[in-house]
Each structure stands twice: as structure tokens, then as C-alpha cells.
Give the backbone structure.
Amino acid sequence: MTVHPILLLDKRTGEMVPAELVETINAGHLASVEKEWMPVLLTRLRELVDQRQPLPENRHWVWRDKVARIQGLLAYRTFAIVCEGRTQGLMQINTAVTCRLPGQVGKQLAYVDYLETAPWNRSSIVQQPHFSGVGTALIRAAIEASREEEFHGRIGLHSLPQSEDFYRQVCEMTDLGIDGTYENLRYFEMTPEQATSFSS
């Protein structure tokens, strides 16, 4: 298991705090999702249903099933972020995907299958999010994994509608529009140049 020290912003105090980026997702991370994430999420889901508000689009994700499906498959890598003894975010990438962006077509990239932040870090779920920077740290991890695979930082992903602004504005990925072959989700890619800019 490879562990990298990172920093997250504790939004409760305004201070940067130490955290760990861990490769790969293990049984402890999955237990944290089931025992700590799910009660927070289910409470908020009930409130949103009562208020007739939009629900989180990834509410049906089951990380234990996702990890089980890729067990032993060399093209897949998984990551977790841990802070204060709790799992703060998870990501799964696929290294057997190629680019669509003009000028990059056919070149390999690290495709982000799934990326999720703990519910207590999301302003759509709690009034006072605990940590900021989990999503960007995971995108940096995807870029670094791409470089390790000699893909020069190229990454790609399909975004749920509620996350599009994050990938477009924060990550500054290239928006390639709605993909009618993939659940009508919007597809984004990041070039090596964009990866360098984002990582610096």
C-alpha cells in the first residue's frame, strides 16, 4: 500500500491539516463508507425528499460492489483520502482508455470511472462542510497515475450534471459535450498542458 502525505483545508477552522492519499481502497475505507458516510447521506436524502429538492445524482453508488468488480484487473487503480481517521474521498481509474480530444485522439489516458467525496464535505448535504480540497487532490492523483503510466498527465471522465462546474471551472478540463453513447453525460478531457497547469 502506497501512502502520500497531502494537505486539506479544514473549513471549520480555516487551517490546512495533514491527510493521507492512499493507493488502494481497502476494507477499512469501504467500512468507513458504509458505517460513516451512509447515515449522513440517508438523513439528508430524507430531508431532500420531504422538501422535494433534487437528490444527489450518485446516491445509488455502492463502493464495495465497484471495488469487487475490478478485483484482479490490472487496468484499474483505486485511491482513498484519509483525514482525522476517516475516509474523506474515493476514486477509481481505468488506464485502458484512449483520448477523444483533437490532437490527442488514440493516445492513452487515465479515465476516472468514479470520484466521490464524503457527504460531510459537500455543501449540498451539510450546512458546514468539514474539508475542502478532496476532489482536487484526487484529480491530482489521477494526473500523477497518468504520468506513472507514461500518459503524460492525460485524464478523461464523464461527469454527473451536478459535478460539471467542478471539472469545467476548477479543474479547467476541456468540455467535449454530451456523450449520447454514455448515459447522455458530459465528457471532459485534460491535456498534458492542462495537467501541468492544474498540478503546479
In short: The two ends are 26 Å apart (CA to CA).
